């Protein structure tokens, strides 16, 4: 008896993820517990910008972080810099592929900045990036970093209490 295509889906997704060199979920820091990672410094700086303007801080979302990390790793591995992956996927597709169940709302990317402070300064000096950081229609964020390629994904979801 042959397995149904649906039964093979988890195996195929794992195979594709592995063959593309995508980040494993274990490689994504948890910025609710382990604040040592550079992406967690960005998370703190983003939330400081929001609080300074009277906005609620973002909740950390592991799936958005996974989508961000995978995209940063893909850009480095394939030597490109774009919101659109070489296979045509956008931030919504990547968030869904990472298992995000909320509504993806935006993405910031940057390349070359050597620190959390430098990338935040760059993003806050860009109207579109700043608008994503200060958006009132998002309540969750995930951040990825590979070498000096940074990715932030924003979403609206049901934040755990």
Between the first and last Cα atoms, what is the distance in angstroms?
Answer: 45 Å
SSE pattern, N- to C-terminal: HHEHHEHHEE
Mean pLDDT metric: 86
Walk across the major sheet and give the strand order.
1-3-4-2
According to DSSP, the number of beta strands is: 4
Briefly note the structural class of the backbone.
alpha+beta
Alpha-carbon Rg, integer: 16 Å
Strand content: 15-25%
Contiguous uncertain segments of 5+ residues: 1-23
Count of DSSP H/I helices: 6
Task: Describe the fold and architecture.
This protein has 161 residues and is of the alpha+beta class. Helix content is 43%, strand content 16%. The protein has 6 helices and 4 strands, in the order ααβααβααββ. The protein has helices at 5-19, 38-52, 62-78, 91-97, 116-124, 127-133; strands at 59-60, 103-111, 140-146, 149-156. A 4-stranded mixed beta sheet has the order 1-3-4-2, with helices on both faces. A hairpin with a 2-residue loop joins β3 (140-146) and β4. The termini are far apart.
Write the layout of secondary structure elements.
Blueprint: H1 5-19, H2 38-52, E1 59-60, H3 62-78, H4 91-97, E2 103-111, H5 116-124, H6 127-133, E3 140-146, E4 149-156
Parallel strand pairs: 1-3
Antiparallel strand pairs: 2-4, 3-4
Helix pairs in contact: 2-5, 3-4
Briefly, what is this?
By secondary structure, this protein is α+β, with helices and mostly antiparallel strands.
What key attributes describe this structure?
disordered N terminus; alpha+beta; 4 strands; 161 residues; 43% helix; 6 helices; four-stranded mixed β-sheet
């Amino acid at each position: 008896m042959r397995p149904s295509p649906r039964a093979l889906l988890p195996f195929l997704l794992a195979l594709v993820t592995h063959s593309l060199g995508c980040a494993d979920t274990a490689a994504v820091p948890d910025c609710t517990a382990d604040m040592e990672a550079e992406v967690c410094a960005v998370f703190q700086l983003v939330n400081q910008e929001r609080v300074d303007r009277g906005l609620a801080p973002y909740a950390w979302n592991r799936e958005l972080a996974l989508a961000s990390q995978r995209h940063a790793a893909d850009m480095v591995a394939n030597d490109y810099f774009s919101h659109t992956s070489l296979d045509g996927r956008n931030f919504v597709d990547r968030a869904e592929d990472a298992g995000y169940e909320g509504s993806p709302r935006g993405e910031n990317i940057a390349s070359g900045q050597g620190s959390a402070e430098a990338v935040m300064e760059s993003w806050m000096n860009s109207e579109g990036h700043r608008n994503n950081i200060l958006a009132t229609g998002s309540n969750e964020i995930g951040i990825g970093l590979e070498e000096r390629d940074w990715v932030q994904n924003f979403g609206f979801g049901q934040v755990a209490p």
